[in-house]
Every structure is written in structure tokens, then in C-alpha cells.
Amino acid sequence: xxxxxxxxxxxxxxxxxxxxxxxxxxxxxxxxxxxxxxxxxxxxxxxxxxxxxxxxxxxxxxxxxxxxxxxxxxxxxxxxxxxxxxxxxxxxxxxxxxxxxxxxxxxxxxxxxxxxxxxxxxxxxxxxxxxxxxxxxxxxxxxxxxxxxxxxxxxxxxxxxxxxxxxxxxxxxxxxxxxxxxxxxxxxxxxxxxxxxxxxxxxxxxxxxxxxxxxxxxxxxxxxxxxxxxxxxxxxxxxxxxxxxxxxxxxxxxxxxxxxxxxxxxxxxxxxxxxxxxxxxxxxxxxxxxxxxxxxxxxxxxxxxxxxxxxxxxxxxxxxxxxxxxxxxxxxxxxxxxxxxxxxxxxxxxxxxxxxxxxxxxxxxxxxxxxxxxxxxxxxxxxxxxxxxxxxxxxxxxxxxxxx
Length: 404
Description:
Strand order of the largest sheet: 3-5-6-2-1-8
Shape: rod-shaped
Structural class: alpha+beta
Largest sheet: 6 strands, mixed
Strand content: 15-25%
Distance between the termini: 32 Å
């Protein structure tokens, strides 16, 4: 907030001085001639070389132009507000008809050589020939460097589309030894007042700080924590995909006599494959440090669809076995176990008049009464519970991995 107030304060004071100033063109021309006479742009300000030159900085982003997760290209438009004191550019107000501020082209005076060291393509300095530097009578220089920055950003798409990316603008003042220049930020975060919201990414947090590299040289960092806006991805990817996957289990509730099971299961499998093809372009291709969890979920659902078709064929095969073929005891006992309570109640009703029948006879009777249709119904129920379990487990794993 303080940096923002100072930013507008400087602009406002500069405007007021220009509006109410009574100086003439000749006065400002004489001032420029006097200040630039013998001025060496190659020498940094500072009379006492034993002390570093203090430079204050603030950064205000305007908009996120592009963020390509596949290539790691992050493009941002913003403005650096950089201030320092140059005693060679100070003057007496009375000598020049109360001129308090003037401006110079960047090439005319000394500038801190901010170099973007993580540029996406060519390494370039801050600012351009179109920019000018405001210089006050005290020697204070204010540089408003507006620029579009294209930088490399290491991306992690493993939690896509619930991912948060961290991208930085990294600068170094080239050509000076450690201790010559000291850069500090007035605010620990970027000024977002002028920022225009991006349709895909939201700036959840920003940081501005400096740090020394392993060689002792100072590095200027402006970082952005970018959170993806989820509404579009939930409505177009997550919900439709989950809805189709939920239909897997319900194929086993269709009566086998209807003859629609195999067509239903095949249609769902094709729907998953088609949907995978449609959203393939939406998934990032980056595989470092890991592939998106959503890609694994899609593969899991395709495999589940193939297994579903196989299970449906197996179920229909079981239920259409001839009654003349005996049901193995193991299968019969498993069916009895699955339907234990229901079977026991039925047996009690049938044998209410003959209580002398022992348990072994009851078990033998139950095994003999089990048909292949009973085996198929039990198999369908197991497959139904299996598919529901797969659906729940995949959703739990997906949200657990993407929210951690």
C-alpha cells in the first residue's frame, strides 16, 4: 500500500509541477545543457565509492498475456518503478526559475542495468528508448519502465486442473561488483491495483524480494503464485467424466433377458474413448516432474470400460449355461453365502413341517437348488459392487492427490 501511494504521489507531484510551473523552454534547455555537460553515463552515481548505491523498486503487473504449460512460456505485461539518487543531476531551483522536475531520455543519463536473466528467448535489458526518466531538483531519479516480459517458468501439471504454478521474473544488475549497488523493494508484494484479471489464471499471491546467488551477486525476483480458475474445467471435464464413469456399474442392474447389456456396456466404453479424444487437446503435454493425475484417471476409466465389457460377456455366458450342466459345489456354496439370510428364511418356511431334517441335509438341498441363473445374479451383484468401488476409489485418489 505504501509503495502504491508513493507511486501515485510521484506521478501527481510531477503533474502538478508541470501544470503550475512558470519556467520557459529556454530555462529547461539551459538546465539540460548544464546537467549533461561532462556527464558520463558509464559511471554509477555515488560520490563515496565505499558505500553502495541504494535503489528502490516496485512492480505493478498489468495483465497476463500468455502462459503455455507445454513450453513453460510465461508472458506478463507490467511496469517497474525504480528510484535512485544521482547527485550529478541536482540543481538549485532559484537558478532555473523554480524548475522542480524534468525528464531525460534513457540514453542520456545513467540507468541501473536490469537484465532479465530467465528470459524465454533473447536476454534483454529493462526499458526501451521510448521511456523517459523523471529527474527532480534533489537528484532523485524516477524510472517507469513499462515492458512485456517473456520468461521461462518451471511448471508442474501433476495436479491439473487443480494446479497452482509459481513463476518469477528474475533480474540482475549486470556489470557491477557485489556491494556496488543495493536494491530493495518498498513492498514485499507486487502492486495489483492496475491488474486486469485473466480468464484462466488468478494471482493468488505475489512476492518481491532480492537474494544473493552462490557467487554473491544480487538477484532481483518478482514471483507470482498462479491459481487456475476451476469453473470451466469442472463443468466441461470433471463432472461429465465422473457421470459417464458412474454408469459403468449400472449395466449389471439391467435384466439379462432384455438383451441390452452388451450394447449398453460397449456404448459406455466408446463414450469414454470419444471423450478422451475430445479433451486430449485440453490436457497439458508436459511430463516433468510428472504427468497429470487426470491422465491416469482417464486411462483407468478406459481400462475399466474394457473390463466391464469382458465381465458383461462373462455374466451372460454364465446365465445361459444349460441346466443339465451341474453347478460346481464351490460356486453353489458361494452363492448360498451371498444369499445366506434370504435362503435360510426360505428353507425355514419350506421345512417348517419337517423339523427333523438336520443341517447337513439342509446344506445339500440348498446346493442342489442352486442354478446357473442364481450364479449369474450373484456374479452381477459382485460386479456391480466392484464397479462402484472402482468409481469411488478413483475419485477419492484423484481429489486426494490434487488437493494435497
